[in-house]
Amino acid sequence: MSDKKIESSQDQTSSQRYDRLTELFERSGLLSNAAEIHGLLTGMVAGGASIEGEQWLLLLSDLINDGQSLPPAVRETIKELAAESCASLHDPDLGFQLELPSDHAPLQERLQALTAWVQSFLVGFGVNQTNLAGLSEDLREAIDDMVEIAKLDLEVDDDEEAERAYFEIVEYLRISAMLCFNELGKNANTECKTNKTLH
């Protein structure tokens, strides 16, 4: 199988998953899509919030469901998503990926999801980290960059240059989330290595 075929089948799988998650959240009456919920979870985990026990789920339902308890199917899916995100942040092969629409989706749609992801990441990160003074210089710089990315102008031309910029930003956010986790989240989440995958 050529690299191109592998890439397109992986893209199809992740895009189907993104659509499925967003559909489940919408059907359950949540106002957040898959990018926002994944960004929030990643920010919490990378910022040092533990996903052991139920406390983090209560906090999450405050943020995404006005404090109402989450439907059982959503709770289970979010638990799996959190465990999987945490495990991929632990991954020595740097397997962590952002939950975003397919690369074949219109650039505008992907940019909206990307800014929603990073805005939500910053909210999740702020749950545990309100004082940035104690962070390493690299991480402070990454958080500052994320704040700037969260303000991105979504009116862009759908051309090759804009596509390239989009992929560079996705990669930068991916690396920054892992940097953040390695500095702050790893010790709080030593138990979340998992082989479980969301289907």
UniProtKB/TrEMBL annotation:
Pfam families attached to this UniProt entry: UPF0149
InterPro entries (UniProt xref): YgfB-like (IPR011978), YgfB-like_sf (IPR036255)
NCBIfam families given in the database record: ygfB_yecA
Family: Belongs to the UPF0149 family.
GO cellular component: cytosol
Bilayer-spanning residue ranges: none
Lineage, broadest ranks: Bacteria, Pseudomonadati, Pseudomonadota, Gammaproteobacteria, Alteromonadales
Species this chain originates from: Pseudidiomarina sediminum
The protein's name: YecA family protein
